[in-house]
Design brief:
The chain is mostly helical. The protein contains nine helices and no strands. Helix 2 packs across helix 3. The longest helix is centred in the first third of the chain and has 26 residues. It is flat.
Length: 192
């Protein structure tokens, strides 16, 4: 329980809470800038986070990519999470053209595979391979990211404003009962 944490542990706990709150706000902001909802971006974020955590020091960059990935599912008529699974496969070195569904990633598979081969080569030679993995991440990011012009046009359109409003209302009405908020309420309640 929180009561049993010493000063350093409690400070770490508070810092983690602040980071989660900041990340939550970033996802809300990103949902307002894309045609997808908060829950889509949050699901995508949790899918790709294990593959990106050590590559990207600023998680806002991963949130932004999550928004772009979720948008591709919507625009491409794919099931929610399909492009996130494609990205996870690419970042983990699985380049099966029969499995990858996103047409942009599919078109870049030779270049992405060549970059992943550089990752493997670096690891085999005893290096960390982080720089090569970061370059692979940047290639995926560049392939899937919405341009700033497209983002601005979407945000200012009627559809963009309506989608943002819908996402905000849905988040408002469901957030109090989501598992994350339930756990947070329990932690806060036990700290009192």
């Amino acid at each position: 329980s929180v009561d049993q944490l010493d000063g350093g542990q409690f400070a770490g706990f508070q810092k983690a809470q602040q980071e989660v709150a900041r990340l939550f706000g970033t996802i809300v902001d990103e949902a307002a800038k894309t045609p997808v909802e908060f829950s889509d971006i949050a699901q995508t974020f949790t899918t790709i986070l294990p593959f990106t955590r050590k590559l990207v020091p600023d998680l806002r960059e991963v949130v932004r990519l999550s928004g772009a990935i979720s948008t591709w599912d919507l625009v491409g008529g794919k099931r929610r999470g399909d492009t996130a699974r494609d990205v996870s496969q690419v970042l983990s070195g699985q380049f099966n053209a029969q499995v990858i569904q996103n047409p942009l990633l599919k078109g870049q598979l030779p270049q992405l595979k060549a970059q992943y081969d550089l990752v493997k080569k670096a690891l085999e030679s005893g290096k960390s391979g982080i720089e090569e993995q970061q370059q692979l991440f940047r290639m995926v990011q560049k392939t899937l990211s919405m341009s700033e012009d497209a983002r601005t046009a979407w945000e200012g359109s009627f559809e963009g404003m309506f989608a943002a409003l819908k996402s905000e209302f849905k988040l408002l009405f469901t957030s109090g009962s989501s598992p994350v908020f339930q756990q947070l309420k329990e932690v806060i309640g036990s700290a009192r």
